[in-house]
Amino acid sequence: MSIPADLDNETDEAIETGPPLVVAVDGPSGAGKSSASRGAAQALGLRYLDTGAMYRALTWWLLYRGVDVRDSAAVAGLAADPVIEVGTDPGAPWVRVNGTDVTAEIRSREVTGAVSAVASVPQVRAHLIAQQRDIIAAGGIVAEGRDIGTVVAPDAPVKVFLTADSAERASRRAAQTSQATASTQADQDRRDRLDSAQSAKAEDAVEIDSTALGLGEVVDTIVRLARETRRQAGLPQPRKQST
Ligand code: DC
Question: What is the pLDDT of residues 194-234, one digit of tens each?
């Protein structure tokens, strides 16, 4: 699908009318999904859901409990134990496990290194996907992950698959974490491999290659897609936000 060039390019408007909108943003780690999804949600006046944060939160809790995350039977048996809550304000997302705020902790190297093993356990996916669908059900949301457009919300009217060159993704991640690019690239390759089973592009998703794009350009593209989808469906266009 191509993006019409004649669309209104404004991003300071909220989609407030018609059926609530769901925007699915999938793609590999380091492609810029979180920043782009949060930016698009803010520009469109929508909520934001980081599904990867939910897998990370469960992983944090398992590590905290001393569970061996390679023991998939143990992980499966504990998948529904902790209460995982997420905030959906794109300006300040947060994650809690059993009432403890773990927004920062879930980004640790330990969690990042262990989360793919946890996310590959079917009972974990079934439990978290049910929770994600409940959050998405009311609509008015940009949801990011790996399987939003294929499994979690296959009826989402707007689907984006955000990619970038493997080397570019690794160098962005290395800049964020102050780690060496070579070891970041090796970790990323390993995670890409482990996450591949749940990382398919939906057939009807629009692929955006962010390798040579700035964040603003990616956000703008998603906003324009959302507006175009509304126009094609004959739904009311966004109203200006009053300032
Ligand atoms: O996007 P992220 O790095 O925060 O994701 C953390 C892990 O969770 C990663 O291993 C992929 C996995 N994940 C998933 O399997 N399905 C999702 N919808 C989101 C993330």
Answer: 888 888 899 999 999 999 999 999 999 999 999 998 888 77
CATH number of residue 83's parent domain? 3.40.50.300
Domain boundary (107, 139, 171) is at 139
Which of 195, 196, 199, 201 maximizes ligand 1 atoms within 8 Å of its Cβ, making it the mutation to test the pocket? 195
Do 118 and 176 lie in one domain? The reply is no
My answer on whether 36 and 148 are in the same domain is: yes
In the structure encoding, which two tokens stand for residue 119, read together? 């996310």
Best residue for ligand 1 mutational test, from 26, 33, 54, 55 (most atoms within 8 Å of Cβ)? 55
Residue 210 shares a structural domain with residue 106: no
What b/e sequence results for 188-213 when a residue is b if at least 16 CB atoms lie within 10 Å of its CB, and e otherwise?
Answer: beebbeebeebbebbeebbebebeeb
